[in-house]
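@here heads up, posting the sequence + SMILES for the S-adenosylmethionine run so it's all in one place. Ping me if the SMILES looks off, I pulled it from an old spreadsheet.
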Amino acid sequence: MELYPPLPALARENRAFVIKAAGWAARQRIGQFIDLGAGLPVYPSVCQAARAVLPAARVAYVDIDPVVLSHAAALLATGDGVAAVDADLRDPAAVLGHQDLRAVIDRGRPVCVILGAVLHFLGPQAARAVTAGTCWPAWAASPSSPSGQAARPPDQDVIAGCGYAREIL
Ligand SMILES: C[S@@+](CC[C@H](N)C(=O)[O-])C[C@H]1O[C@@H](n2cnc3c(N)ncnc32)[C@H](O)[C@@H]1O
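bot reply: prediction finished. Complex structure tokens:
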């Protein structure tokens, strides 16, 4: 924060966007969410935002950080349609094929893929692969919600890979 004072405001704005996007998707009757790089604990969570609209919404929280995953397991993975998934989002096939994710996400129904403040940790090539691999092929009719911080605008390929993103940005 000393090096970059706007950081707290950026984090709050990002979180507000993620919650707004989850609520928007739920109001479109999308009842499934994959939160990639979930970063728990956060309040409100995607689950809380979605279930405020659709009480039966299902959420898979994906992260690679053991601390995040322990919070997810303790707070959220209660067996009622919420899962904590230990996976690296740079491997979309492993994420989408993970048994814990598949236990709560039905591939035959629309799903909202959330990439909140995580793509900027990856290089442009990996970000393209992640958006193409998780947002695009499996659910062409589903929305995605990317957000992040960058020193320059994201590649058009990354934006295109995110499907509906432009409609809610
Ligand atoms: C800045 S936090 C964002 C939290 C939340 N998505 C939000 O928008 O408020 C980024 C999260 O992404 C996770 N992350 C970073 N690289 C990852 C990777 N390759 N695979 C899975 N999670 C990753 C980190 O562990 C961290 O929890």
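MO: Residues 161-169 have pLDDT under 50 and may be disordered.
MO: One more: The domain at 7-168 is CATH 3.40.50.150 (Rossmann fold).
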